[in-house]
Amino acid sequence: MCLQQLLFTLPQLLVLIPSAASCYLATKGRMRFTPAKTAALCAAVLLPYMAAAALLHVLFSIGINQILFPSLVLFFFLYRRTMNLDLPRALAIYMGVCAIETFPAQFAYAFDAALHPASGASDFSPEAALFRLVLSSLLLAAFALPATRHFSWAVDNLDLPKIWYSTVILSTVFLVFNVLAIPHSYSTLYTGRMYEVFLTFQAGALAVLIGVYVLFYQSAILILEQAALKERSRLLEMQAQQYLALQEHIRQTTKLRHDFRHSIRLLASLAEQGDTASIRSHIAEYETMLDGHTITNYCKNAALNALFGYYREMAAAAGIDTDWIIELPDPLPFLELDITGLFGNLMENAIAGCRTVPKGSRYFCLTAEVQHGNILYIVSTNSFDGKVRKQKDEYLSTKHEGNGIGLSAIAATAKKYNGSAKASNSGTEFFVDVALKL
Question: How much is the pTM?
Fold first, then answer.
């Protein structure tokens, strides 16, 4: 009898399998282990858990939901351990799946009520459990393509904790409501037209929740497009500033060329007089004037050139010693916004790090060169105060919760071009090494 009850109980717990798989759909590029190893780890946890939960239910008459709901915290902890995700995104995905999975359960209760009108949720039948498992599996199949193709893009690119936390709140509201709406006695569904109202309401709520998630994805696209436009505007502003500086340089050079004839006559006159001290003084003054009107061209790309000039001036204003060697391929084999974003984040982070130490100890070395004919290597080294926040091998932001936005963006760009990005530190030096395939 006990074995038979166990066999009747296990189908209710099998729903954990498609639920667990759903949590990984949008995080294919964020898994700590291979899919096979992750599946093995999940099986090693879920199978003993299901057996233990079934035993508790049979031996002590503890409701399955009473066992499952407290376990959600444990499952989230284990899920987080298998992912390279910050808390907001991991929690948003996990709670979203939990909220969605309450709907197959509600429809299964309605199905069970049709089969066993005199029963209740505590006597959930094996047929209803199988029905729920089928619905959960169908949801998994339906969401597999959109989640892996679209929602994973939002997970990789949208690094705004407040927005992710807002989806957590929404998912929690739906989750709690459906838990409270469980029909503990199926007879309540046969009061008036309650059965039809229950089904209609659940279908409508599921449609609303899915619609909200779609709107969230569309909003993520708009937010990132606005960020791209803002970055483009900033680049254009830098280019405009460099254009004005170049115009001033041309004007000053024209003036220097004009004045150079007078300098030649003066130097000739001083030479005839044998006044070498005045000659040296005039030449030194002329060199100073030339040094003050030098425009550095780092590369042939106008946007990148403006970007380097902008951050070089920022570094100089902050008292940072710079040693930059920039040798980029022409034409650039990358999207302009991608490569300017990468260098912009790299230089902004380095300068921010330098500002954490006293003037006189600030330095920023940057090298970018093509090696082996097909790889662009970018190496950044800067001084900083040595204070870091890390989780495993990932650096966390020292300004807010979660990963550093700049480092995450650099890693995403490197991945896009089949390359790699690695950050490290040693004492009071911070290093970033990037490799991009051409």
Answer: 0.68
